[in-house]
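Example 3.2
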Amino acid sequence: MRVHLVTVGHRQPAWVDAAFADYARRLSQEVRLELVSLKPETRPATAGEAAIAKLLAREAQRITAAIPAGALIVALDERGKAVTTRDLATQLERWLAGGRDVALVVGSADGLDAGLKSRADMTLSLSALTLPHGLVRVLIAEQLYRALSLLKGHPYHRD
């Protein structure tokens, strides 16, 4: 199974790329984590709600085009369902059993288009806090590794 982390954001510092690559490498062949990084739309200096909605709609088109056909879409949003690491492990087990690729979608600094969120198969929250995009990349990679280690009985995770 492939997990596609589809993000909208700027180039990240070297430590983000290194940490993401380290955790992605630790995942087994059973779960492959691939990063798809899309450049954000240029935000007008005096953007009102309507302009931001149009911007998010354009980004949503590009995000949708980057998601492989048939993939389960998981929107990551602060208003999504909060999950624990054990919940994520259970969900990962379901995804593995389902046999479909998964696309985890992270929007730009302005978030995700409402239409894209409504089309997603599920919406999850990583935290009630606002997190920088680089940290989200690392957090996702580490938590997928942690969830898989739980499923495999590896001692990485401790309760």
